[in-house]
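call fold(seq) -> tokens
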Amino acid sequence: MTVRVVLADDQPLVRAGLRVLIADAPGIDVIGEAGTGAEAVRLAREVAPDVVLMDLRMPGTDGIQATRAITARGGPTRVLVLTTFDDDEHVHDALRAGASGFLVKDMALDDILAAIRVVAAGDALIAPGVTRRLIAEFVRRPGPPARPRALAGVTDREREVLTLVGRGMSNAEIAAELVISVATAKAHVARLFTKVGARDRVHLVIAAYEARLVHPSE
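ret:
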């Protein structure tokens, strides 16, 4: 199955570079480009891509507003944020807006392609490096909720699973840690999506941090 991608960045050279990098990748097609957040929202509605690679800093409707508008529709399109982590102060807002993962613009091509495929498959970037750092940045920032997030209806076992998800573990790693089958671990994670109201694993990680089950230093 081909992953259909829209590139959203206000710098034409960045879009052109990404298009060239992606052009030879099997199973991934760039089907549109947007120079503003408003154009990205319009394209997402018109062509329903699997993934929008979204820059955060764009004139007018920025990447956060565009991400919120795209994900609020509840369709299949997922947003993968393009960021320069060291100086971007708005990454945590993109998590709130519904982004499913993050790319740093100077990442290696293989990592970019892998990220696109992971997000298109309905998962999210959690463990190595970039997303964990961004989530840690997110939870360190002041703002609501001040009290630990309530986990109504979550069982003790599901709380254990959520803690391990928050530490960046895959379903297989969770199964090994808790001495259960991978299918059982997957079922627990699926129930947590519903109970916590999470779109994907990135937002389960946020829930684990907000419930103070894990901390950025872990």
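The chain has ten helices and five strands.
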